[in-house]
Amino acid sequence: MTGSVQTLVNRMTYWCAVAYLGYDQSRRWDIRSGGSCDCSSLVIHALREAGFDTGTATYTGNLSANLTARGWRRLPADGHPQVGDILLNDVHHVAVYVGGGRLAQASIDERGRASGGRPGDQTGHETNISPYYSYPWNCYLRYTSTSAPAPSGKLAADGLAGRATISRWQEIMGTPVDGVVSGQVIPDGRTYGRPNLLSVTYGGQGSALIRAVQRAVGANPDGLYGPDSIRRTQIRLGVTPDCWFGPATARALQNTLNNGRF
């Protein structure tokens, strides 16, 4: 079985920043939008989605032994992880480094507990993309091969609209460039799902970028990227207007931005 480190990063990013996935150790394998996981079940699930053989790994305590027997190296946690490294504390926690000083992880339920909460992400942070921190990690697990980088100067049309995509969008729309869509409402998973924008802050008065986009597509310029704004964006990009800013919409956006326009 041949795995892809970039796909691992993409899948962890999807589950932690796009899907409506919550934290609950008692329902840790209910990994779906609206379901639940814990830190190790999510990493193991994403590894399998990325094509990696995880052997009999089931939790943090047996993850290292299974992966080091299958092409991964156990390295010192020196504060300089590489993209796709698994950040492991053998007893308590595991996350994946996704680049740009950030990691993807399942953290805690909406009440600050390990179990007993509601399915789905009630806070926008039960699963999350966060700045890298020293847990402390016992090691980094690193695969022996890496994916090729995207061509210089071009966005990778990977369907995951991260900081580079958002920054390019901000440049083209003429708004301040920081790679972040700010001031959004936490989606409830029923009215609409999280847009596939991977660098988002919640609360406040909306985003200057989104207001510029809304004006361009003829939506109400309130700075909040809801279903109508997403639908109008999809029509502009020529994708199915299903009000869900998923990978197909993100990919169309990246291809459009690579042509210097929106």
UniProtKB/TrEMBL annotation:
Residues 10-101, 104-146 form the Endolysin-like domain. InterPro entries: ELLD (IPR057370), Papain-like_cys_pep_sf (IPR038765). Gene3D superfamilies: endopeptidase domain like (from Nostoc punctiforme) (3.90.1720.10). Pfam families: ELLD. This is Phage lysin.
